[in-house]
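Input for the complex:
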Amino acid sequence: MNFPIPDLNLSFYSSALPIILLSLTSIIALLMGVSKKCNSVKSAMWINNLSLLATLLMIIRLYGISGAASEMFLSGGFIAGRLGYFGQGLIVGVALVVSLLMGDSYIKAKFFRGEIIALFHMVIAGMLTMVATDDLITLFVGLEMASIGIYALIGYTSPTKLSQEGAVKYFILGSIAAAILLFGFAFLYAATGTLRISEISVAIGKISGHSWVELGAILTIVGIGFKMALVPFHMWTPDAYEGAPTGLTAFMATAMKTMIMVAAIRVFENGLSGVHGVWVPVLGFMAASSLLFANILALAQQSVKRLLAYSSIAHSGYMALALAAMSGGVRQYSVPSILFYLISYVVVSLGAFAIIMWLENERCENIIVDDLTGLAKQHPFAAVALSVFMFSLGGMPPTVGFISKLYIFNAALSNNLVGLVIVAAIGSTISLYYYMRVIVRMFMMEGSPVLGSLIKPKRSMVTTWIVGGSVAIILLLGTFLPESALRMAKHSAAEVSGG
Amino acid sequence: MPDFSLILPHVVFHTFALLITIVSICVVAARHPVKSAVFLVVDLFLLAGLYASLDSHFVAAIQILVYAGAIVVLFLFVIMLLNLQQEQLKGVKFTVVEAGALLITLIGFLVVMFTTMSGKPTGLGEGSLDVAAIEAAGGNTQVVAMKLLTNFIWPFELASMLILMAMVAAIVIAKKDKKVVPAA
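Predicted:
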């Protein structure tokens, strides 16, 4: 009997080490949770932060030594390439920052427990799997690992009705979206006879215009659009974001978005580029409606987290716009602009959520926009930093938000998507109103007990460093250094956009 | 006299498909959770029949063993432990939004159905699927096992992680060492 043995060799283990390490640490954390000796917040914190740091360093090293071409392992199950390591690096970086912030928040004792850290690490391992695979089955398993853990974490960490409502809503809608996505994959498999993304793109060339491929592409974009939180599949986002503890909201808004965008780049720019006539209009419609509706709905929000949730839907819209920007045949701008946007969005969001987490610590509950009134008087540095983040989210120069929007509009305009860019510009203008509202509250209004009591949180070294770091990155990338970050984005994108 | 060996697979498929649709509607429409679960067992058995009619005997057997045999029995246990009663449907009104959602679902269903029917198999893929070819490759069980442990070993291993995680998640959610405080 002739067995084709899978090539589980040293080079595979070293390339997939980040995923394997996180799986191991999740098991260790789980065992620590049941042991009597090492079941403490401190030990959970140590193992969490150390393993995430080690993983991050490992990914940076792997990114550095990987060449322009990617290498496939285990029949496409795992890809060692720059795009994958780029996504993995962002995700693990976010996870590390979020854990540091969690260590300084009121939710600390609830989060740093063996079983929760185990779930957290498995979620990250699932995300790392999803961004580095050529196989639709692996992609789906990674997506489910990321989603199921997040459902539980939202529902568990803060036992309020609000968070349980968010978790249940996300769970039910997410399961339906996963079913639709799987249905799409099934049609793609039925038509092309393969589950490998790279082979699907070859097979589509042979059977152009087959109705099963087109149906599969549409069902896939619906499933992915749900996870990206594009309108009209955004209903779960505000509830889940508001219900989750703020650290996890930050994690969902940034790491989940990175994961789904990198996976979408692989599936759509690589696998389904042959049928872009089918999915680009659908994606364009979802992008346009996200840009308009999310920004309009955000105007009425009182809770800062809900406001940022709607803002994250709008930012998904910008990235979806860039994803659609390959229909005119000019492909080299699309993927780098998405990756650059991801860097900018991740840094800005983490900074904004860090400040919100710090402000929440005093009262242990969600804050609303009114709570920010007069913040500039008491905490001038925090107010200035939050203004920088708001300016960047709104896309004002000299922040990185402006440059990243510029790249996205450039990618879209070079593919003649003029209508979508006009909609995006209108949405961007609307969004300035609610970002400015936060700034006006902080700087131009006096704090008074009527508008909400004044917040006086304790000093926090971690928050100071993280906020300071993200302000520095935002301003540097917005003025002197956008070229180097863009070069990195182009390097990472070479795998799919071929230039 | 028509050739029955050509018609029979179609008859079998459409009978099973129709029954599956009816029973699936019963699963969601049944008021009592136990009835719902029993309909689910029937549904899974019929699905196994569909697999068997496609010559996937291994998947059919696994379907019955794992789903109908184990999973739904667990469902029944959970229903009994939670002591769920017949659902009380008081004052449920059919709103315009719900009617619209139903209409959109129906249209989507029809679109999917007609698109599926309009396509023909492309013939791309990994070899023939008829009985003789499966026989030559060593039978269903061997083919599935080979694929699972060679081509799909990475998702296969990760799936074990996924199941462990689902278990931890369920325990974490179900633990009752906390009070539910209403939202402010």
